[in-house]
Amino acid sequence: MCELLLDHHRCCLERQQSRAFPLSFYNDFPVAGWHWVSLLGPYNERLMRDYGATNLALLVLTVWVWRRPTAEKLCMTGSAWLVYAVVHFLWHLLHLEVFTTLHKVGNVVSLALILGFAVALVLPDRADENRATAEASAAAPSRNTTR
């Protein structure tokens, strides 16, 4: 699970361009010349900065949980990302008509990866559940006693 958080951490750092350099993000995201954001409507600095701030807040939460992971913290972080990712994914899915096929695929795949990351954090870790069950069984007094 921590590897997922690290990969997503790198992705979020790239997205902070929207917070620090909103016009650059608007014109050049994900790379110069692709214009994924500018094709979707006129420039709005407040919107770009708000988007960047949301990503930065999620990044802070993610890094904190990555440094001190527990099952509950991972699930809560995944839930926060899931709320964000579902809305973001659905909006972009409904607005793909301005893109070429290659860029449609790029949009859907990149946003689906974030959605998958969130789902992976929300799902319980089966190894932890099995370990907890085994520990509980070992700690319980035996009912089968011979007389």
Give descriptors for this structure.
0% strand, 73% helix, elongated
Ordered list of secondary-structure elements with their pairings:
Blueprint: H1 2-15, H2 17-20, H3 22-28, H4 45-67, H5 71-93, H6 101-122, H7 126-139
Mean of residue pLDDT? 81
The SSE order reads HHHHHHH
The DSSP helix count reads 7
Backbone CA Rg: 21 Å
Number of domains: 1
What fraction of residues sit in β-strands?
under 5%
Oligomer type: single chain
Specify the helix fraction band. over 70%
For the report, how would you describe the main beta sheet?
none
Helices and strands: which structural class? mainly alpha
Structure summary, number of beta strands:
0
Distance between the termini: 48 Å
* Unreliable residue runs: none
Morphology? elongated
Q: What's the short story on this structure?
A:
The chain has 147 residues and is mostly helical. The chain has helices at residues 2-15, 17-20, 22-28, 45-67, 71-93, 101-122, 126-139. It has one domain.
Give an overview of the whole structure.
The structure is a single chain. With 147 residues, this protein is mainly alpha-helical. It has one domain (2-125). Helices cover 73% and strands 0% of the residues. The chain contains seven helices and no strands. It has helices spanning 2-15, 17-20, 22-28, 45-67, 71-93, 101-122, 126-139. It is elongated. 14% of the residues are buried. Keywords: Membrane, Transmembrane, Transmembrane helix.
